Amino acid sequence: MIATLTGNVLLTGLDRAVIDVGGVGYEVFLSTDGVSRLPEKNSQVFLHIHTHVREDAIILYGFLEVEEKELFLILKTVSGVGPKLGLAILSGMKVADLCQAIAGEDISRLTTLQGVGKRTAERLCVELKDKVGHLHGALEGREGVAAKAATLFPAAGSAVADTLSALVNLGYPDPVARQALTAVKKRVGVESFTAMPVEELIRETLRMLA
């Protein structure tokens, strides 16, 4: 069974992508949120994979986070919820929100999801409310760590610190300036970002803020 894929994004569609792994294109089905968060064409991506085997086909379902894959597998344990409906459910709500709705037995919220009627929503709550709490907690913890990691704290006297100071003096709020600098860093890469002189950093950051 294929458990993960690392390759380049070759094509994307509404509910799927083709990932080029060593010259072989793997068609992978994803939630709409997953498709929207894929990197640009020809960029590398790592996906957690669930391999669904049928008599007439082998279908790959892909997830950017292991928690999304785990929730997908948990959803499939509910009577009447197959892979297609499971993916549709994940397309309609973020993992943390879905876990919260199930744990809180929020039937009205769950029935807004495509393909989920009142009876299915009730089954989701009854069968899964005690199985999704750990996922919600793991996501909250990881998001907190990610938020800290994304915050830019430049060393005093560095070109980045001088650029941040210049942007604040130009009237940009400190958090906005830090976010723009972080976006520049992500776009050009850590090595190029670190080597940029102040003038170039200011120019690139202002372009992000335009």
What is this entry, summarized?
The protein is 53% helix and 18% strand.
Write the layout of secondary structure elements.
Blueprint: E1 4-12, E2 16-21, E3 24-29, H1 32-36, E4 44-53, E5 58-63, H2 66-75, H3 83-92, H4 95-103, H5 107-110, H6 118-128, H7 133-150, H8 159-169, H9 174-188, H10 190-195, H11 198-209
Helix pairs in contact: 2-3, 4-7, 8-9, 8-11, 9-11
Descriptive report:
The protein has 210 residues and is of the alpha+beta class. It folds into three domains: 4-63, Nucleic acid-binding proteins (OB fold (Dihydrolipoamide Acetyltransferase, E2P)), CATH 2.40.50; 66-142, 5' to 3' exonuclease, C-terminal subdomain (DNA polymerase, domain 1); 151-209, Orthogonal Bundle (Helicase, Ruva Protein, domain 3), CATH 1.10.8. Helices cover 53% and strands 18% of the residues. It has eleven helices and five strands; from the N terminus they run E-E-E-H-E-E-H-H-H-H-H-H-H-H-H-H. It has helices at residues 32-36, 66-75, 83-92, 95-103, 107-110, 118-128, 133-150, 159-169, 174-188, 190-195, 198-209; strands at 4-12, 16-21, 24-29, 44-53, 58-63. A five-stranded mixed beta barrel has the order 1-2-3-5-4. A hairpin with a 3-residue loop joins strand 1 (4-12) and strand 2. Helix 2 crosses helix 3 (83-92). The longest helix has 18 residues, at 133-150. The radius of gyration is 21 Å and the shape is globular. The relative contact order is 0.08. The model is unreliable at 143-151 (pLDDT under 50).
